[in-house]
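Reproducibility note. Readers wishing to regenerate the assembly model reported in the main text can use the exact inputs given here. Chain order matters: entities are listed in the order in which they were concatenated for prediction.
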Amino acid sequence: MSGALPGWMRMPLIGFVLVLGFFVLVPLLEGLPVAEVGRVLADPRLWTVLLVWVLAWMGNAWLSERATTRLAKGVVAACFGLTLLLLWELMTRLYAVPEVILPSPSAISAKIASNLDTLWIDFVQTFVKGALTGYLIGCAAAILTAILIDRSSFLQRGLLPIGNFVAALPIVGIAPILVMWFGFDWQSKAAVVVVMVFFPVLVNTVAGLAASEQMQRDLMATWNASYWQTLFKLRLPAAMPFIFNGLKIATTLALIGAIVAEFFGSPIKGMGFRISTEVGRLGLDMVWAEIAVAALAGSAFYGLVALIERRVTFWHPSQRH
Amino acid sequence: MNRVLPILTVVAVIVALWYAATVWMNAPWVRDQAARAGQEVTTSQLVRETLNQERPVLPAPHQVIAELWKGVSGQAVTSKRSLVYHAWITVSATLLGFAIGAGLGILLAIGIVHNRAMDLSVMPWAIASQTIPILAIAPMIIVVLNSVGVQGLIPKAIISAYLSFFPVVVGMVKGFRSPDRMQLDLLKTYSASQSQTFWKLRWPSSAPYLFASLKVAVAASLVGAIVGEMPTGAVAGLGARLLSGSYYGQTIQIWSTLFMAALVAAALVAIVGGIERVTLKRMGMAR
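Running the prediction on these inputs yields the following structure tokens for the assembly.
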């Protein structure tokens, strides 16, 4: 029978039957009377949510079978995100979920709109002062260190395993110590970020400096290029894909470090501070608003670094389309 | 030897720098105390006192090691003062969350590889979510679950699961797609079904990707569990230990907890790495 259905209808229908079966079977297995199950199934709210879900899925399946251009693929992804938001909104409204458990997207966006100034102050405190400062210092220090130890294979063999080891550690744990040393303001957050981004960038840069081929280095040698000429004209450009890999990993780490460090003490502003205090006051719409800002800032930061990467490493195979 | 000597040298240099920093950072307090008592401090006295303070700005390595040793072997492992007890609380949440996150991640990756609608809809969001500071939602998850009556291990495990989920999804999608055109075509000429292709080709060839992403995921799970213990004033676990140390200015306690966390992280990653080596060797994929 399913052979007669077009492909884009098949999976959503199977999913629909499975979820419906779940709503029938689980109460029955838990020993609820049949009348109770019937009442659950007669609830129009359940049908509304399920129908929106299945229809959106069919629409997306239909669309994705035909999507070939990048734009169309983007539309599919956007539809998926919008459907999730719509379902979220529907469920919180229909089932009257209390604000202190899950605020609806409309409540969150209303909160964002009415608290733009607070959000901006928090953003500047955490992102610009804490994360960005720490990111710039940490990445610069890591790249310089990598260039310095590059000349000594002894140092490399000693530092690289340690760097790899430290990169896997739960470094956010040093946040309480650094807050004690550098005070409550953004300096301590920047310090946490410096330590967090340092090792991933160091390890990637050292790997990148080793990436140029022997043939290319020999060519530089035949041209009688000095160490620094080889470094700037061959090895650093060749290392750029690796360095940017580290820089991209570090963008997320920077934001995480700055936010988590604020859980340990902060002046009365900052995204992490706002999240931890509003959670305590059960002002969850404000928490979600901060999370939305953090998500936006994180993706924008990553996107910016990726954009710079595309400009710098336009020659690399991974950048060709 | 060729590999150990450089590492030992660097470690020795770090320890030496640490001792120097200890003297330098703790000296103001010692000088201050001496000035109040109206005494002069000699250099040797200064060094001796800076290295053995009760609540130093920066504890000396031997103090941290001593505290760590005391925490591990000083009492029964069930005691609330035992670091093993706290580490176990955190590790149990980490492992539960890791298992959930990795399992769901693999399932979603299977769905993404086999279903074009899922691929186009979910994959961009899974990638984008890696640029988001997910850890920021940790306090909210704990408090909300607390208010609906879920406490203890589960909320921390959910944060761990969430953190380990996305690296596994992204890594496994790459892994399931790693067989090249030629191999997929060969299975097609054998008239292999989709599930046969999966079990005989995609799943085995994704093994290196699986372990690479599991190593990232287990480290992320541990961070999630530790951070999950911080905002609620949890009473047990490494995160709670860090927080109480920071409240009461017990720097030695903070540092020893940090070392414990580092040991746990290293052990978890090493276990996954060990399984990786054995598995890849038996599959004939070891490099």
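We highlight two features of this model. The CA atoms of residues 171 and 196 of chain A lie 6 Å apart. Chain A has 13 helices and no strands.
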